[in-house]
Amino acid sequence: MSHIKIVDGNSLLFRSFYAMYRPGVPLMSNKDGIPTNAIFIFHKFMKKLKDDLNEGDRLIVCFDTGKKTFRSKLLDQYKQQRKPIEPELKVQIPISREMLDAMNISHCELEGYEADDLAGSLAKYAEKLGDKVDLYTSDKDYFQLISPNISVNFLRKGLSEVQCYTMDNFHELFGINPCQITDYKGLVGDSSDNFKGIPGIGEKTAIKLLNTYNDLDEIIQAMKSQKTKTALNIVEHEEDGQFCKKLAEIVLNLPVEEYYNSSMVKDYDNDALLSFYSKYSFNSFANELKKKMEVRLFDIERVDSLTQDAEKEKIIEISSLKEVLNPEVFVFDYDQKNYHRANIKNLFVGSSDKKIYTLPADKIKDDLYLKEFFENSSNTYSAYDNKALIVILSRYQIDVKAKVEFDLLLVTYLIDTNVEDSPSAVLDSYDYSYGDNLNIYCTICSAILNLKNSIIKKLEVLDELKLYKEVELPLSSVLASMEIEGVPLNVEAIDNYGKSIHRKMDAIKEEIMSYSNEEINLNSPRQVGHFLYEVLNIPKPDKKGSTANDMLLKIVDEHPVVSLLINYRKYAKLTSSYTDTLPSQVFSDGKIHAMFNQALTTTGRLSMSEPNLQNISIRDEEGKLIRKCFFYPDDENLFLSFDYSQIELRILAHVTGDQNLIDVFNSGEDIHASTASKIFGIPLKDVSHQQRAIAKTVNFSIVYGTTPYGLADKLKISPAEAKTIIEAFYNTFPGIRTFEEKVKKEVNEKEFIKTMLKRRRYLKDIHSSNHLLRAFSERAAINAVIQGSAADLIKVAMINTYKALLPYKTKMILQIHDELIFKVPKEEIEIIKPIIKNAMESAMNLSIPLQVEGEEGKTWYDAK
Fold first, then answer.
1. What is the C-alpha to C-alpha distance for residues 617 and 352, in angstroms, rounded to an integer?
2. pLDDT for 420-477, tens place per residue?
3. Which of 296, 335, 395, 693 is exposed most, by the fewest CB atoms within 10 A?
4. DSSP symbols for 815-858
5. pTM for this entry
6. Is 490-585 a domain of CATH 3.40.50.720?
């Protein structure tokens, strides 16, 4: 199935502009003074969309023409209520087309119609051809287009927060079906488009009616036999409702074949892009592109990539691996990033004589030679992403015992953590060419065959070969086993918990609404801001009248509704991120099989996605209670959690060599109480709870890099007081300041810093003309040594623990920052605990002892 992404250009450009627009504040502009803030953000978004696509996929941007449309003729006041476009935005609209041309991205517009008509017609045309369609917009009219193969990615908060609406989740998230959107608009209207719908009908009433009746016609017919105020109102304004419904209907039959044919993803025109970047002073984009073109960082021995024709000649279709003499490289071709769910297309196999073979997906399951190859521990192989390879093979009941010796994704990540974890970005980093008509995974296979030896030599030069061979490469197999094992989630339990959260939200919303005479969308910052600062006359926390949570905390004592709103948002976050969405992530085995991202973060830490279980909050009880829904359905297995105690502070003591800090840990004293005793100059026994809390904040702030202003904000004290506390801390532990100055000097000289295991973090902004970026880079360098070394340690611990558990049934199933979580049969619990404790505490030899604490329980919640 091909994939097409269709972008609502005007919608995204507007959001890009207002993401960085503050009245009276100078905007980003080029050397000629032309505003470029919207283009800057729009470019970043479009680049990410394009880079995530595969060969054969499509991308197109739809624009309004800026002229009158057929809707304008139907309704003279159509969109006239909208305030005029800011002049600084208006000048950037034609530049957006210029940008897309430079990026080799197709765009279209059609006089008499709006962008949504073009997008809708394109979506339906592509769907008929069998394409998977993703629409990107902030216009709710697009919801009417949702179907089994059409999804709408709805953008909030500039372009940083995206909610994907599909046939599976739309009713749950919005309350009605996609086919009822135009009926909904007929009832409530759309103030942004200047059509009012039926007076007195708000969002809740409309949704209630559409859950009772199928459409607007049925509603009107039913209301004619009722005498309520709502019924009489609907009947009286029947024509208004029908007219507004018609205005909201997207045209689906425009002639778009030519636009569709032009939308195939094409290579960037680097020269055109550099010219565009220069014209609009996008220096960071230009520098990044130049580095890729020059291949300055990698500086590997050049091996010419094969031409497309030569590649095609060398691709040989096979029905079994037995047809390949000396197979070396294995690369799967699949249609989405989540390889647990992806449709597998082919397996590309590279041989020692640099020939490339393709094994169709329907041949893999029955290929005994493939199974025999990977289940033989004496065999070796190379891969693009070993973790994904092992997981996909497990879907074919192949248990990989062969040894991986090369992983292109991981070596690229070690050479430069700034390279994105996508096939196209990896190939670009080596300047390895791939074309429109050649499968990108086939090109990856070719690149591994041609570049492997040169890349390994580069790792040797960078002194990262040991880190690669002893940590990252074996860890990929460990993570694969964890993903395959999965984590049990009881759908009934989380559904019940979600319902209880929704009841709390409803009660809070009802209490908030008691202060208002009209319906308020609590998810709308504009409506909430109007309610707080104009209806209730609450003093604004800033000039803008922000409704962000950190701003609301400043005015929480001004009115009871503020704390209610904060709590409502907390619960809304729990439902949208977890209780409403996690059930859809459960596989047929009753488990979540999330992905660990091994080549994503710049610090070396692992992250998770689809879903991100690392983000389940433990700061408040409601968040922690989600963990109660994770348990094994039988009574034979328990959750066991082991967590490092103050790992980053212990690493800080080790890398700084500060004797005072080392002595605190070696004495077994409470580190935070001891710090408080020293910086406040009082006996340890006299340290108050408040002083310990301050010291704890200071300890972790130093680890993460802080300023007097940052610490002042956390402790709610003046910057002068914060500065005094920071100075007292450094006077108490002088080795820390010496260490920090050494790191700053090193990163200024080399533009990178190393962790304890020689992992590199590049910080190119260390020589920026912007002093804020320079200061940030210095703090990031210090943080990288501490956090990066902690990441190295937990990875070593995972490998050691995995090996120690091989003789047992116990399985490692999760890594949450400094915590490892296990599935343990009850009969093994007392045997296993000392084994895990020893493996984790002996992961690295530090100048102070490592400590882990463990606890078991029926649920994940009980094990912590």
1. 49
2. 888 988 998 888 877 555 789 999 999 999 999 999 999 999 999 999 999 999 999 9
3. 296
4. EETTEEEEEEEGGGHHHHHHHHHHHHHTSS--SS---EEEEEES
5. 0.67
6. no
Nearest to 473 by CA among 396, 383, 393: 383
| Integer CA distances (angstroms), 586 to 166, 174, 387, 508, 863, in order | 17, 22, 20, 30, 21
- As assigned by CATH, the class of the 295-462 domain is alpha beta
Q: Which residues pair with 353 in a beta bridge?
A: none
Using alpha carbons, select from 856, 854, 818, 803 the residue that is nearest to residue 632. Answer: 856
Alpha-carbon distance of 434 to 427, in angstroms, equals 8
For residue 373, the number of C-alpha atoms closer than 13 Å in the C-beta half-sphere is: 23
Distance, in Å, from the CA atom of 129 to the CA atom of 1, rounded to the nearest integer, reads: 9
Q: Helices (DSSP H) in 175-236: which residue ranges?
A: 181-188, 203-212, 216-223, 229-236
The identity of residue 363, as a single letter, is K
The first and second tokens of residue 804, run together, are 């120690």
Q: Coil, strand, or helix at residue 645?
A: coil
The 10s digit of each residue's pLDDT in 556-578 is: 999 999 999 999 999 988 998 89
Rounded Cα–Cα distance for residues 24 and 21 (Å)? 9
Which of 465, 398, 416, 408 has its CA nearest to residue 432?
Answer: 408
Instruction: Give kind and range of the element (H or E) at residue 616.
Output: none
Calculate the alpha carbon distances from 193 to 79, 129, 196, 247, 484 in Å.
4, 32, 9, 9, 49
**Helices (H) then strands (E): counts for the chain:** 38, 22
Is the Cβ–Cβ distance between 159 and 12 less than 8 Å? yes
pLDDT tens-digit map of 736-794: 999 999 999 999 999 999 999 999 999 888 888 778 788 888 988 998 999 999 999 99
Q: How confident is the model at residue 307 (pLDDT cuts 50, 70, 90)?
A: very low
Cis check for the bond before 611: say yes or no (omega within 30 of 0).
Answer: yes
322 CB-side CA count, 13 A: 8
Half-sphere exposure of 258 (CA within 13 A, CB side): 6
CA distance 549 to 543: 16
Smallest Cα–Cα separation from 432: which of 447, 421, 449, 442?
447
Q: How far is CA 449 from CA 141, 381, 406, 427, in A?
A: 49, 11, 11, 13
Residue pair 410/476 in contact by the 8 Å Cβ criterion: yes
Task: Write out the two tokens for 33.
Answer: 């003074």
- Asked if residue 31 has pLDDT above 90, the reply is no
Residue 454 dihedral angles phi and psi, to the nearest 5°: -65, -40
Q: Tokens 């449309």 belong to which residue?
A: 69
CA dihedral 598, 601, 605, 611 (to 10 degrees): -70
Domain chopping of the chain, boundaries: 3-176+250-261, 295-462, 490-585
* Extended beta strands in 500-580, E state: none
Strand partners, 332: 347
Report the C-alpha gap between 104 and 670 in whole angstroms: 59
Q: How far is the C-alpha of 717 from the C-alpha of 729, rounded, in Å?
A: 16
* Spatial CA neighbour of 482 closest among 99, 810, 126: 810
DSSP string, 186-201: HHH-BGGGTB--STT-
CATH superfamily, region 3-176+250-261: 5'-nuclease (3.40.50.1010)
Instruction: Single out the residue of 224, 239, 176, 233 nearest to residue 201, CA to CA.
Output: 233
Residues whose CB falls within 8 Å of the CB of residue 741, separated by 6 or more in sequence, listed in order? none
Residue type (1 letter), 805: L
Cα 113 to chain centroid distance, Å, stands at: 34
DSSP assignment of 424-492 equals HHHHHHTT----TTS-HHHHHHHHHHHHHHHHHHHHHHTT-HHHIIIIIHHHHHHHHHHHHH-EE--HH
